[in-house]
Amino acid sequence: MIVRFPSLQARQTNLGSLMEIHGPKLLGSLYQDPITSFGLFQKFTVQHPDVYWSLVLKELSVTFREGPRCILDTSDKSKHGGTWLPSSVLNIAESCLLPMNSPRKRDEDVVVIWRDEGSDDAPVNRMTLRELREQVMMVANALDTLFSKGDAIAIDMPMTATAVAVYLAIILAGLVVVSIADSFVSKEIATRLRVSNAKGIFTQDFIRRGGRNFPLYSRVVEAGSCKAIVIPAIGKDVAVQLRKHDLSWKDFLSRVDHLPRPNHYFPVYQSMYSVTNILFSSGTTGEPKAIPWTQLSPIRSAADAWAQINIKTGDVFCWPTNLGWVMGPTVLYSCFLIGASLALYHGSPLGRGFGNFVQEAGVTCLGTVPSLVKTWKSTQCMEGLDWTKIKSFASTGEASNFDDDLWLSSKAYYRPIIECCGGTELASSYIQGNFLQPQAFGAFSAASMTTGFVILDEHGVPYPDDQPCVGEVALFPVYMGATDRLLNANNEEVYFKGMPMYKGMHLRRHGDILKRTVGGYFLVQGRADDTMNLGGIKTSSVEIERVCDRADDSVLETAAISVAPVNGGPEQLVMFVVLKKGYSSTQEQLKMKFSRAIQSNLNPLFKVSHVRIIMEFPRTASNKLLRRVLRDQIKAELASHSRL
After folding, report:
1. Going by fewer Cβ within 10 Å, which terminus of the chain is more open, N or C?
2. Are 155 and 323 in contact (CB under 8 A)?
3. What is d(CA 40, CA 52) in angstroms, rounded to the nearest whole number?
């Protein structure tokens, strides 16, 4: 395990400064310094979340129309964890658009930086806070001519500067954003429009990737009759024929031409628990869960970025993602509620064009997913670029690879990689890295601030907090930002039914299998559904994949699944493999090497029964590996062979 230790500048981090100011008063004589006392302070925030949030709210650009009567009200016992910021009224989009009463966020500050793919020789584009606010207010005025307060309006397009303005305008106008990833086919778009009862949708005529145009508007048309506002991917005019009831972006904006001040808009103020955004789970099985975000969710997202990733005013934060996934709104709010600049690349992040943008935009924090880093490393497309302005990396979405993390960190003077693991329904990460503890590649160092959890054994009994173990994680119910409702499922059944009580609390289900190591680090071992029983021993897919990924130089990535033999008997371990470009290996050779690596590093009783080399892994649109699809494939293959 490669570990990076915190520097002496820990006191200058956001969280370190907060601890230096308030730690002695809150922890008394037990407080020493931000590094030594981090564990004590994190536990204090779990026990006294109201104290922590009262301090952090002052650090964020959150403007209340009517302030809360308290931080947390636990008098209503029917609500798990209580009610946060009760009686408060605000518009969270307005908070993103107003200058702060300090030098941290001024009208003339650049808040969005972007570049179109293929424009590598052109300067990056920049938008100030004033320019963003005026564009958002113009869109909000145009929305008022078409829709009614409370209507759900979908966004199905790449995360461009225009998409960001539309997102904020919908919320500013008292409407609800429906987040749809631009990679979805018509059927998936239709499902999300139906579940959310969307009245309109913002989209593009097509998506520009790698010099090619991919249709998007046509997919929206196939999904249903919802009114579409179509934004051109290139130029000022859309390049497709629109339906009669749809509008081009140009015609949509012209609806405010009659107004004396089209760039001025009075926000719609609502209670803290008003829905602002409907997001969806990955939907790997069945209909995706429709997860409503309230105005509380953005606050939690931004607060974790401030405390854990150390995003500061003046930083440039880039994370290639989409508004259809949780990281899109998360990064947006993290920038605008802290005072950082949002960096957007309008194109594919897989090639050198993206890396060149990171360099020229002056990105100081770069967010990634492990498969993206793996591609950069294997293609060597980022060689020779200057990423030394980067102060930290962040990673989420799937388990990281140690070697890939080391390669990534080396691109910026071995800066830390902050691992993040949470969920759309949490609006945050429940475990995360930070700048005050030693960080190990591919591992998590602690629970996020105010988050409490236990690891359950196979009988649902929590392991002691200091004991190395593997089991299903269960969250404490007092969790600011966690959803208390679902649009198409029962929140109580999904997250609480069947969960044990712990110290008078009804624990919340999350579904991750978590390993606590001897040194106190955490490794996510996949989902509870990804565990397998090999020879009577429970293990996880991720643990096996970590070992097999390093078993041979030809291996790009592996996926481990287990299947029961057709005629019964113990589960068999099957490894699916994607090889690096230009490499070759046989399934039998890999079977032998995988078995040897697993037996040496994990358990001498484990063995690989089958290896299958395939071109690529099936994944969801958010890049999560679909082991279920691989399991179905091998089951069908083995069943076919048994009939011969």
Report:
1. C
2. yes
3. 13
Q: Over the stretch 423-480, which tens digit does the pLDDT of each residue have?
A: 999 999 999 999 999 999 989 999 999 999 999 998 899 999 989 998 999 999 999 9
Instruction: Domain ranges for the chain, please list them.
Output: 129-278, 535-642
- Tally of CB atoms within 10 A around 592: 15
The kind and range of the H/E element at 521 are: none
Within 131-180, strands assigned E span 152-156, 176-179
* Chain-centroid distance, C-alpha 316: 18
Which pLDDT does position 62 carry in this prediction?
A: 95
Q: What architecture is the 535-642 domain classified under in CATH? A: 2-Layer Sandwich (3.30)
Tallying the residues shown for the chain, one arrives at 644
pLDDT value for 281: 83
Q: Which fold has domain 129-278?
A: Rossmann fold (3.40.50)
DSSP output for 41-70: HHHHHHH-HHHHHHHHGGGS---EEE--S-
Residue 596 phi/psi, 5-degree rounding, is -65, -45
State in Å, rounded, how far the first CA of the chain is from the last one. Answer: 47
Distance CA 596, CA 576 (A): 16
Q: How far apart are CA 581 and CA 479, in angstroms?
A: 45
Structure tokens at 40: 């004590």
Which residue matches tokens 């009804």? 506
- Is residue 159 within 8 A of residue 344, CB to CB? The reply is yes
| pLDDT on residue 370 | 87
Contact residues for 70 (Cβ-Cβ < 8 A; gap 6+): 50, 86
CA 216, distance to chain mean position in Å, is: 23
pTM, rounded to two decimals: 0.88
The segments of the chain whose pLDDT lies below 50 read 284-285
Report which DSSP code applies to 145.
T
What's the pLDDT at 284? 44
pLDDT of residue 534: 79
